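Worked Example 4.2. Consider the chain below.
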Amino acid sequence: MKKTFQLNEIQEVAKAIIEVTPGKQLCFYGEMGAGKTTLIKALVKELGAVDSGSSPTFGLVNEYHDAKGHLLAYHFDFYRLEDETEALDMGLEDYLNSEAWVFMEWPEKIKSLLPDDVVPLFLHLVDENTRSVELNIR
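Applying the procedure from the previous section yields the following structure tokens:
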């Protein structure tokens, strides 16, 4: 899947990603400001989360639940990670083995820890209101 979109179309893009992705573990690649967190917010909203969604930059991981309290997704931001062992220490393997969706920003920081079946998603900044997304489906 490859699509160029306006920011006001992000919810439709999120819906399309959920429909076509072969797995629930997505790695988000893109420069700072490309819209990774914004797209993840749209994805968790599309999944039915009642949480508002924020970047977990300072907390490393956010959890999102539906109205009944069921866990829907984890959102990781590994930008501030100094070493892969920090991800292991926080229990990354347990998160990856859950049934929940797992959205990971800056996955290049934990490259050797990523499962083989993660779905890479590349976001590119086209201009202030336009992005392109490429979802590599294997």
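The beta strands are 2-6, 25-29, 61-65, 71-77, 101-105, 119-127, 130-135. The CA atoms of residues 28 and 47 lie 17 Å apart. Compare this with Example 4.1 before moving on.
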